[in-house]
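User: Fold both of these, please.

Assistant: Here is the first one.
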Amino acid sequence: MKKIIFLAFLMPYSIVYAQTPALVATKEMALLKVVVVNANKSSPEGEQVSFVAEKTKKVYGSITDATGKFSILVPAGDKYKVKYKLFTDDKDYSALDIPKTDGPVEFELTINVSRPKIYTLDNVFFDTGKSTLRPQSDKALDELAELMKLKKKMKIEISGHTDNVGDEAANQKLSEGRAEAVRAYLLKKGIAADRVIAKGYGDTQPIADNSTPEGKQKNRRTEVKILSE
């Protein structure tokens, strides 16, 4: 029995179980043949997709090869949450029901993804008024570095932003220093220098009302901008 399923996700992970090619479906284990397609209609390498079993909570997943594909075996007779890696976040998308049948089951999944070009690093923190990264930032930045190691062609800009409190020149300098601190962290993790640029924008690009504490907090942010993939 062979089923063809097409899954489309508008936005987009990180337990990954590598499996060898030439896998064969059985009555107990369904074969999933996955291809990821991005907004440019190309099939990118290094995309992480995972399937979380509803009954056992086990995670099955892999990473796309140079052709944007991978194959994986998962137990039949369960429903799976499909997850996709977006920078440092994991997000649930849909449920995939894989029934148990009298014979082998194959599924072909085409996953269409449109990755945002700008993403806020919500879990990156600095000392107040300084460009010193706090230890709590390590997890998010480590995950970003790992993603860039998988997506070898990706180039990004780290953008620093502040609220409008204080002198404009000081805010500009602070935003530049914070962006450079994130870039330096990524370079220490093995990311090539020509793949990451840092820019500070001071208080010139607010995304919220600076007249409220909540708005100021949103404006004090570090962003990742994808330049190319």
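And the second sequence with its predicted structure:
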Amino acid sequence: MREVLEHVRAHAKPHFHSEVIQKLADLPQPVISAVQGHCSTGRWNSRWADLIVASESARFSDVYARWGLTPVWGLSLRLPHRIGRAKASEMMFTCRSYTALEAFDMHLANFCFPDDVFEAELSRLSSDILANSWYANQVNKRSLIGIDGLSLRDAHGLEMFKNEGLAPDAAKRVEKFFAERKEGGS
């Protein structure tokens, strides 16, 4: 067994963790991270998610500095992109714990639901996403990844010249919308 472990260590790719996190962030579909309880530093894998949904009893913190650790997985690099440098600095330097409502207010969490309805609201959010065109959701995600860090002008250029076109189900979706509108009389 010792020989196997030594072989694995000798052939392990250095810093593979950050590559794994990047692959998760680059998944083609929208990814929701549901946070209940305490979500801290290395366990805080929600930073790569597209949407972070917190229960009201959730707590968030970044405590690398408390333990004398330095970030190497790329998660802390994502924090300022999500909430801004000032708030990320506050979290990283103070190692303070934040409530789910505070996380929502600083745009760390997209939603903060009461504990007693958390699962139902999470299910409803997922249903809302799944009701949309899967093709369009994937194109939107690729666009968000592609424009990250670009100026508005460059992002607009990318959108114009790399447009992937309408979803295969676009015509049916528009037809259904007008049919439902006609039936409803509005």
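Residues 47 and 185 are 44 Å apart (CA to CA).
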